[in-house]
Amino acid sequence: MAEPDGSGAARRPRLGVNIDHVATVRNARGGATPDPVRAAHLAVQGGADGVTAHLREDRRHIRDDDMRRLKQELAVPLNFEAGATAEMVAIALEILPHAVCLVPERREERTTEGGLDVIGLRRELKPMIADLSAAGVRVSLFVEPEPAVLEAAAELGAPVVELHTGAFCLRHDAGDHAGAARELERIRAAAAAGDRLGLEIHAGHGLSFDTVRPVARIPQIAEFNIGHFLIGEAIFTGLAAAVATMRRLILEAREARDVP
Ligand code: PXP
Questions:
Q1: Closest ligand 1 atom, CA of 54?
Q2: How confident is the chain (260 residues) per 10-residue block, as mean pLDDT?
Q3: Which of helix, strand or coil describes residue 65?
Q4: Helix, strand, coil content of the chain in percent (nearest 5)
Q5: Residue 91 pLDDT
Q6: pTM surpassing 0.85?
């Protein structure tokens, strides 16, 4: 939906909470607790607009049954993150989440490093996007904030791109102010370019209470997906409180109420 300023941004940016690392802790002991589905309910209580979970090929955190339970129990949209493989698309077509976010995935990585090679994988991605879209699933591609990649995503018919904020967050957290400013500018330019192409713009990876503010000021971003920091913060404050704070910071930044 277009805003009066011509951008396609949502009036109220959404917050999706990624609960993968609750399952990481559960799997460390091999039992049933802590339960990621219980965490998802708490995140919703704290103000999450949606829940994200990544079913990795090696099932190191979320498992197939978690994803099924999330779909059955949640009243908010479920964003199923997955590598762009035939196996994952088949599972997504069975579970039918609200959205699927296709990401690059390598077994040896600790988290999703870099965006999807949309240009190199055009031929593989096209039928996946078509099949998921035909089943009523909203497809998002997790991408580097690069204009050529966004153009390829639009050409493939993906309705949504999620801009990778990891490089910005890494530089910010390392105290590299000039590098962080450059990365933020890339995200800002990509959000505007993607919006002009008619893409819905999401953002995520590495975001914290500090790094979310400058990103949330970018008007075209309709949704944030945040996990690791919130699950860590939950150890100290509880998950609902951590999510509520993140929600407030995003809204204040969007309305420029955080600017002194
Ligand atoms: N978005 C995508 C596509 C991701 O792969 C991840 C990590 O699973 C996130 C958002 C959340 O990143 P983080 O856990 O660093 O907040």
A1: 8
A2: 46 94 97 98 98 96 98 98 97 98 80 85 97 98 96 98 97 98 98 98 98 97 98 98 98 79
A3: helix
A4: 50, 15, 35
A5: 98
A6: yes
56 is in an annotated binding site: yes
* Ligand 1 contact, 228 CB (< 6 A): yes
**Amino acid in position 239:** L
pLDDT score for 105: 82
CB 212 within 8 A of CB 249: yes
Site to probe by mutation for ligand 1, drawn from 80, 225, 239 as the one with most ligand atoms within 8 Å of Cβ, is 225
C-alpha pair distances (Å), 57 with each of 31, 86, 186, 227: 20, 11, 30, 19
| Length of the chain counted residue by residue | 260
177 annotated active-site: no
Cα(204) to ligand 1 centroid in Å equals 6
Backbone angles phi, psi at 73, to 5 degrees: -90, -25
Amino acid letter, residue 121:
L
Q: Is ligand 1 within 6 A of the CB of residue 79?
A: no
Tokens 């962080």 map to which residue?
180
